[in-house]
Amino acid sequence: MAARIGVSYEGGHPPQTLREIVQTADELGAGTLWAASHLFLREPIANAAMVLAHTNALGAALMAMSPYTVHPVYATMAAAALDEWFPGRVQLCFGSGAPRDLESIGLGAQRPLATLSESIAIARDLLGGEPVTFQGQRFQIKGRRLASGRHTIPLVLAASRPKMLELAGAIADGVLISAGTSPGFIDWALDHVRAGESRTGRSVRKSALVYASVNSDPHVARNTLRRNLGIILRGEHHARNLALAGTSLDQAALTAAFLREDLCAVDALVDDEVVANHTMSGTPAQVKARMADYEAVGLDEIVLAGIGGGAMLRAVMAALA
User: Fold this and answer.
1) What is the model's pTM?
2) Within 13 Å, how many C-alpha atoms sit on residue 35's CB side?
3) Residue 312 burial by Cβ neighbours in a 10 Å radius (0-12, 13-18, 19+)
4) How far is the C-alpha of 96 from the C-alpha of 116, rounded, in Å?
5) In whole angstroms, what is the distance from residue 136 CA to residue 117 CA?
6) What are φ and ψ of residue 134, in 5° steps?
7) Cα–Cα distance between 149 and 146 in angstroms, integer?
8) Is residue 124 within 8 Å of residue 115, measured between CB atoms?
9) How are beta strands 301-305 and 4-9 bridged, if at all?
10) How many CA atoms lie within 13 A of 77 on its CB side?
11) What's the CA angle centered on 205, arms 198 and 305, to 5 degrees?
């Protein structure tokens, strides 16, 4: 079965660009707009409301709401309020949050497995519509309920490490794997998700963020993704991702280049081979073939990332069709 197509919005583009993207996504039949929650960028709850109000069928996911910055009760309230206005079009995704974001406001992600497990449990209990009493290691609720009652909202866990991937398979309705990951890494990650599924007999929806760009000149297509991809791949936790893709990349040199703002060095390090290994980019034929690689590892949904506007989304969707 072909993977469903979604689109992500990272929060960097102004409202007019987001409007173009979501109207194009709605017109072309994409499933969901995943609104990212990155500190200091545009806030996802407000943007999700606007997306739902200005489209006919497109869904909206609050993407990787971090319980270290937003209490899971509040995140669940937001998703429930959106579901009241736009029934059946809302998803709630939890995640630890970007470490550098948390550090920038003096926070850390202590006990992430327990914290995310409690967040999913709290959201699921509250969405059941009954009074909730919860006593966890981090969060507590004392006999309170949502005013809006019961909701059926899929709960997704963003994950990239083995134990968090297994947790997603065991307790969530879906898993979201981060952008910049190769088909080989996603294949490895989904093995861990399936291990979690086997513990509880669940079957979760499997989604991944995939950078995408298309142009008749593959070098031009990859240029649009090069620096964003470099920001992601410099992280030490991407070492396995690089290895499973057969990618040669000096992460230390890449980090140093960003620190001294030497973008020419960044471009040289994140060459076309690196971009090709970790994105769905190039000519229309190359993008179509790469789509098949991501589908083959078992994804139910490919969430297009790095889309800069409606025209690029239309071009990528045309290539995939």
Assistant:
1) 0.95
2) 25
3) buried
4) 7
5) 10
6) -135, 130
7) 5
8) no
9) parallel
10) 9
11) 135
Tokens (6 digits) for 295: 């589908």
DSSP reduced 3-state for 5: strand
Q: What CATH topology corresponds to 4-214+280-320?
A: TIM Barrel (3.20.20)
48 membership: H or E segment, kind and range:
helix 44-53
Q: Smallest Cα–Cα separation from 5: which of 259, 253, 301?
A: 301
| 105/110 Cα distance (integer angstroms) | 15
Burial of 295 (0-12, 13-18, 19+ CB in 10 A): middle
Among 24, 53, 26, 22, CA closest to 35: 22
- List per-residue pLDDT tens for the chain, 321 residues long: 578 999 999 999 999 999 999 999 999 999 999 999 999 999 999 999 999 999 999 999 999 999 999 999 999 999 999 999 999 999 999 999 988 889 999 999 999 999 999 999 999 999 999 999 999 999 999 999 999 999 999 999 999 999 999 999 999 999 999 999 999 999 999 999 999 999 999 999 999 999 999 999 999 999 999 999 999 999 888 999 999 999 999 999 999 999 999 999 999 999 999 999 999 999 999 999 999 999 999 999 999 999 999 999 999 999 998
d(CA 42, CA 128) in angstroms, rounded, equals: 30
CA angle 187, 254, 307 (to 5 degrees): 60
Residue ranges of domains in the chain: 4-214+280-320
Tokens standing for residue 318 = 């045309």
Sign of the C-alpha dihedral computed for residues 62, 37, 313 and 27 taken in this order:
positive
Q: Is 195 exposed, middle or buried (0-12, 13-18, 19+ CB in 10 A)?
A: middle
